[in-house]
Amino acid sequence: MKKVLSLLTLCLVVAACSMKSTEPCPEEDASEFVNITDVVPDVILEIRYYGTYNFVGTRIDGYEEPTALLTRQAADSLKAVSDDVMGLGYRLKIYDAYRPQKGVDHFVRWAEDMADTLMKPYFYPDLDKSVLFPQDYICLKSGHTRGSTLDLTLFDMATEKEVDMGGTFDWFGPESHPDFCGNPETGEYTGDNSKSPAEPKRSISPEQFQNRMILRQAMLRHGFKPFDTEWWHFTLKDEPFPDTYFAFPVKELSK
User: Is 33 exposed, middle or buried (0-12, 13-18, 19+ CB in 10 A)?
Assistant: First the structure.
């Protein structure tokens, strides 16, 4: 009798596991995501974490193809932004959008390796790598992993060049803050570069500050909110998955 019960229990466990395996884990479910280029065909993609020109210096885990994904809601709002700036003579250029958790984990491992400073001259020359965690340049979680955050800039259709924002994407330092040399709430250029740690202190010009504001104001007009320390970083205000950190890889989604 005990043997029969044991076999019955085993069968129930196997059946339960089989049923569970057919149900996708929420973190692995990409059904509410879209390829950005399917919704916003005018965008330009330069997916930095698929390549090697980034602060780590290698392709980041989870980036299987040089594409960009967002939740449907964020992509629809981005289409409105694109239409807006197209009327001003610009296109949107995207560096990163949805970022799988394994990509964030890759950043964390890199930040813990104090000997790896390959890209320091290009992205964090004024900082010791030991401050990246305390100063929140690297974190265990990222808003990008929730699927409604992206990093982007403007591309000038007349000059066929990126718009000059006075600093590179993923620069670790106050020079990347939206309030560097100006007030982003009023759009006023002040020239205040006192927070720059460089000697002599770095600065951005009135034109570079205003270029940042063009991007910022367009994003705000269409439902995105800015980030205090990165002029290129925006999140949909009403993001649909505020508590879910997704794990599926970055690659083209089937239509």
Answer: buried
**Phi and psi, residue 2, nearest 5°:** -65, -35
Token pair for 107? 């950043």
- Gap between the Cα atoms of 6 and 8, Å rounded: 5
Q: Which fold has domain 33-236?
A: Muramoyl-pentapeptide Carboxypeptidase; domain 2 (3.30.1380)
Q: Does the reported pTM lie above 0.70?
A: yes
Residue labelled with tokens 């990163």: 96
Instruction: Quote the CA–CA distance of 29 and 247 in Å, as a whole number.
Output: 8
Amino acid at 13: V
CA separation for the pair 213, 185 (Å, rounded): 9
H or E element at residue 227: strand 224-227
pLDDT tens by residue, 22-31: 556 889 999 9
181 to 104, 172, 191, 198: CA distances (angstroms): 30, 16, 4, 14
Q: Describe the crossing of helices 206-221 and 72-86 by its angle, rounded to 10 degrees.
A: 130
Are the C-beta atoms of residues 175 and 167 closer than 8 Å to each other?
Answer: yes
Q: Is the pLDDT of residue 12 over 80?
A: no
DSSP reduced 3-state for 231:
strand
For residue 162, the cross-strand partners are: 155
Tokens of 85: 């700036």
Q: Which residue has the higher pLDDT, 14 or 126?
A: 126
| Domain regions of the chain by residue span | 33-236
223 vs 217: CA distance, rounded Å: 10
The amino acid present at 70, given as its one-letter code, is L
